[in-house]
Amino acid sequence: MIPRHAPPLPLRTATRLSLFQRAMSQEQFESACASMLGVRHVLLLPSARVGILLATRAVMTPETVVVGPAFVCAVVHEAMTLSGASLRFVDSAPGGFLMNPAALPPLAGSPWVGVWSDIYGLPCDRDVPRSTSPPVLRLWDMAMSVPEASAFARLQSNDAALLSFGLGKCLYSGWGGALLCNDSTLFHRIRAERDRWVTAEIPSTRIRHAISVFGRTVAHNRCLYALGRYAADRRNTRLRAAVARHQTEAVAHATPPNRLDRAWTEPMTALNRKLAWANLQQAAQSAALRQRQAEQYRRHLEPLGLVRGFGENAFPQSHFPICVAPAQRLAVRAYLRRHGIDTGTLFPFPAQLRREDYPHAARAAAEVVLLPLGQVLRIEEVEMVARRVREALEASDRKQRPA
Questions:
Q1: I need a surface site. Which of 110, 147, 227, 380 has the fewest CB within 10 A?
Q2: What's the chain's Rg over C-alpha atoms?
Q3: Do 179 and 169 contact (CB within 8 A), yes or no?
Q4: DSSP characters over 171-186
Q5: Which residues on adjacent β-strands are paired with residue 41?
């Protein structure tokens, strides 16, 4: 089965790096990463979500409002909530996935932090309409993107960008994230929060992260993936209810957050940093491969009316999204799985929001199906996947026709 995503480094490469690559300290990694990506400061974190939370806490006052997309990963909303600030959510652009700048709420006179998320690696418009006051801080959530130095050239003094090395991301390295900025005052404030928040790197953490990295790399082998996917789906169903309870009970002012899980407090280990550095070094090749795949997907699937939400000059990087009728989505995914192609549906519509208030986000949440991109997919397989999508739609149409 073709996985919906997979670690970018094969098992052989990950093993070689683990055994023979010289370890980089946290400070060495941050300095090398800053030089590679052309920014002044880089800060390693347990995850990108921690960057959203700590950066917000570093600048907020009792009057601060945090503004973010309605259609996004649930952990982004969790980080916004844990900040303790007032929240505002923004609908997606009509027919798209990204937060609509024209829908930003009027915030004249209110200090606010904006979270712009590059959904599926699509570059988000981070300009603020003149009718709205400038934010105290703009957070560029690039967790689903492949980073390029040119993307950070526009970072201003009130900007911070976030990368993710977590599961399902283009830079998956087993654990962690990074915050990038050019303003020294902002950096030192966030670093002080990080140093109080994050636990020390200890042997048990190194062992657990190593087991996770190699276990997931092996599990994403095509021969083993189907069995692992079935087990993961059962586990995730049980976890969703637990996560919902956990979010309700979390205490926003806890420092460090003793009632939050390890994803908020555990540091990257030496192995995670080795793999992350290798992924960053091959980022240009990864981005080029994903663009070629996305271009082919678009050529085959656009005539079917399945492609929307991005133009000809910007392509998704983490997954390739298509939009099908909600009544057909389960059948399409099941057909693809039977033919050896796993898919995703990121992201569900947030339970705490009303669909009528965010119609475009609600539509995306009901229609999207994510196709594989990246090293998990051979370039010559894109046409085959597109053909299976067409067959799945035809099969679903036949079933829905009256006898």
A1: 380
A2: 21
A3: no
A4: T--SS-EEEEES-HHH
A5: 181
What is the rounded CA–CA span in Å between residue 384 and residue 390? Answer: 10
Contacts of 353 (CB under 8 A, 6+ apart): 70, 89, 361
Percent of the chain with pLDDT strictly greater than 70 = 92
Residue closest to 68 by CA, chosen among 47, 87, 82: 87
Quick one: three-class SS letters along 248-305? HHCCCCCCCCCCCCHHHCCCCCHHHHHHHHHHHHCHHHHHHHHHHHHHHHHHHHHHHC
Predicted local confidence at residue 399, as pLDDT:
83
Judge if the upstream peptide bond of residue 3 is cis by omega within 30 degrees of 0.
Answer: no
Three-class DSSP category at 324: coil
For residue 12, how many other CB atoms are within 10 A of its CB?
9
**Residue 241 above 50 pLDDT?**
yes
Helix (H) or strand (E) holding 160: strand 159-164
pLDDT in tens, 245-280: 444 444 344 444 456 788 899 999 999 999 999 999
CA–CA separation, 269 vs 126, rounded Å?
A: 32
Classify the C-alpha dihedral 368-80-163-101 as positive or negative.
positive
Instruction: List phi, psi (to 5°) of 389.
Output: -60, -45
pTM over 0.70? The answer is yes
Beta carbons of 42 and 34 less than 8 angstroms apart:
yes
Q: What is the pLDDT of residue 253?
A: 45
Return the percentage of the chain with pLDDT > 90, whole number: 82
Burial of 127 (0-12, 13-18, 19+ CB in 10 A): exposed
CB-CB contact of 43 with 189 (8 Å): no
In whole angstroms, give the CA distance from residue 91 to residue 115: 13
Task: For residue 121, give every residue at least 6 positions away whose Cβ sits within 8 Å of its Cβ, in sequence order, or none.
Answer: 144, 145, 146, 170, 290, 315, 316, 317, 318
